[in-house]
Design a protein that fits this description.
- By secondary structure, the chain is an alpha/beta fold.
- The chain has one domain (about 5-245).
- Helix content is about 50%, strand content about 15%.
- The protein has a six-stranded parallel sheet, with helices on both faces.
- Strand 7 (about 165-170), helix 8 and strand 8 (about 190-195) form a beta-alpha-beta unit.
- The two termini are about 20 Å apart.
Amino acid sequence: MTTPPRVDVLGLPVDLVKLEDALASVDARIQAWRTAPSEPLMQIVTVNAEMAIQALRNPDLRAVFERSALVVPDGEGVVWALSRQGIKTPKVAGVQLVEALAARAAQCGWRLAFLGAAPGVARQAADTLATRYRDLQVVYVQDGFFKSDEEEQVREALAASGADVLFVALGVPRQEIWLAKYQSALGIPVGMGVGGSFDVLSGRIERAPAVFQRLKLEWFYRLLKEPWRLSRLRQTLPIFVWRVLREGSRKSVTRGEEGPS
C-alpha cells in the first residue's frame, strides 16, 4: 500500500492526497484487512482551520491526529496554509469523500455503517446514497441521540454488522475521539468522522452551489445559511491565520516526498 506524503501544519500532520489517492488508500486497507484481520485499522480525519485550532487546544484530539492513518485537507484555510509552504494540493471536502467512498463501495462490495446526526438524518443520507449507487450495501444505521446507557448496545450492533467502513457524525471532537477509542473493538477496518455530511446528503442542508465551490467560498455560503457559525469562526479562524503567518513559509515534511501539485 502506498503511503501518502505527510507534512506538518501548525504541528499537526496533514496528508497530501487527492480524492483518488484517498480512495486507493482505503481500498488497499480494506483488502489487507479482509486477507488478515490483524492488519492496522485506518482512521480518516478531515481537517479544516477550525478543527486544527481545536486540536491544538485539546490533547486528546491532537493525539487522534497523530495516530490517524489519513488526515485530509478539508478546508480552504488548510490548503492556504500548505501553499505558504510552497505546497499545492487540492481540498478534499468531507462530504465529497463520503460520496466517493460510497460509489467505490458499490463497485467493490464494501459494507457501510452510518452512525450519528439527528433522528432520521443518517437513514435519509444512507437511503440517498443507496439510491444513487444501486449495489451499495448499508449494514447499519443509527442516529446520534442514543443515551449513555445504550452506547454499549450500539457498539455491539456495530461490531456484529460486518461493516468495512464506518461513518461517524457525532460532532468534532467527539466523533474522532470516539472512533479512536472504539474502532479496534468494533473490528471495522476504516472509520471516518464526517461532521455535517449526513445533513448535506440527506438534503437537510444544501451544499454550496458549484460557483461558490469554484471560487473557494464554500465556507462563506455555509455561513450565509448558518449565521450562528460566525461566533465559532471568530474564536478560531483569526488564530489560525495569525499562527500560520507567524510560522512563515517553513516547509516541514514528516513522511514521504513532496506531494501532488
